[in-house]
Structures are given as structure tokens and as C-alpha cells.
From TrEMBL:
GO terms for biological process: translation. The gene is rpmD. This is Large ribosomal subunit protein uL30. Residues 4-53 form the Large ribosomal subunit protein uL30-like ferredoxin-like fold domain. GO terms for cellular component: large ribosomal subunit. Part of the 50S ribosomal subunit. It comes from Nakamurella flavida. Keywords: Ribonucleoprotein, Ribosomal protein. The keyword Ribosomal protein applies. GO terms for molecular function: structural constituent of ribosome. Coiled coil: none annotated. Belongs to the universal ribosomal protein uL30 family.
Amino acid sequence: MAELKVTQVKSTIGNKRPARESVRSLGLKRIHHSVVVTDNAVNRGYIRTATHLLSVEELSAEGSDQS
């Protein structure tokens, strides 16, 4: 399954509660903290809610070659 590397680039101070809670639900605790999460609908929703606070990179699935 694909994975996303999510990095918090801005503070949650002064943002609305749904954005703050989404950042926390992704496992991010401070600015420049990164986590790798699975690419699913729940995590995409969290990212969409707080897109102005986050930087997202898609990680390639190098080791999951199934022929």
C-alpha cells in the first residue's frame, strides 16, 4: 500500500479546532516533525483539513513488487 510522508510546516496556534485536531491525529507534535502514514481515506481527510499547515510527499513503494 502507498505511504505518505507528512511534515508539519506551520504552527497550529491561532487555527480552528478541526485543523489542530487533524494535525494531532496524524501524529504530528511540533513544527518540522514528520511521520509516515498509509495513504487511505481517513488520512487524506486529515490532510485536506489542515493542508495549509502541512507538507506532503508520496513515498514510492520500492519493496512491494508483486508479480
